[in-house]
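User: Hi! I'm working on a homework problem where we have to compare a predicted structure to a textbook description. Could you give me the structure for the chain below?
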Amino acid sequence: MKEKMLKSYKAWDAPTRIFHWVNFTTVLLLIFMGLMMLFKKDMGITSLEAKITLKTIHVLIGYVFVLNLAVRIGWGFVGGRYSRWMNIFPGKGYIGELSSYLASIKAGEPKQYVGHNPLGRLAVAVIMLSLSVMAVTGLVRAGTDIYYPPFGSTFAAQIAADGVDPATIKPYDNTGTDAAKAKALSAFKGPFGTVHIYTSYFLMFLILLHIFVVVRTEIKEGGGLVSAMITGRKALTKEPEDLNG
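Assistant: Happy to help. Predicted structure tokens:
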């Protein structure tokens, strides 16, 4: 059997690779902290101080996550060819590309790409949307729960009773607050918390699916997906479909 020759191609630039691993790490840490907050009573964590500490750690990690995501979103407009949104998000002609790619898999001769294959492009779009929802809802809850930036001071001012300095309002403490305004804030933040939690569950599913697909693609199609996200280069056996696109 003739051995297929490998050719190396430059795929992911350094900022994209850094984003990937920082995002991977922070998301796992956020999920871990989130699960601790959800099941704190089962773990014997009952004091208000411990509750606030868990929330604060979660928020601080969240800032790293949000900053990293913001940089990646911006980089998608000015970065390397295979890191740009115009070459990632599904657009004109995408359905045809996806159909052709799926047909090549069915035929046992999957097409290869320097960047994301059509299924990968769809996955990135869904993941980025989910991450963005997590970022926005997380920042809102950071502001409503423990009055952290960027919205914390605004929310504290909204619920402070007349004549009370908003800076003296403390998390999970009604002292100095207007009861009616605090109730309204609680109703406002509720949906953000619900969306945040269920999006996190969806994100957990996406992580597992992503790992499965990467392993499956690595075995069936090659390309060194994991190593490419470390070195920035892919080793392919065929002429990439997106080399001259």
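For your comparison, note the following. Strands lie at 7-10, 233-236. The chain is about 65% helix and 5% strand. Good luck with the assignment!
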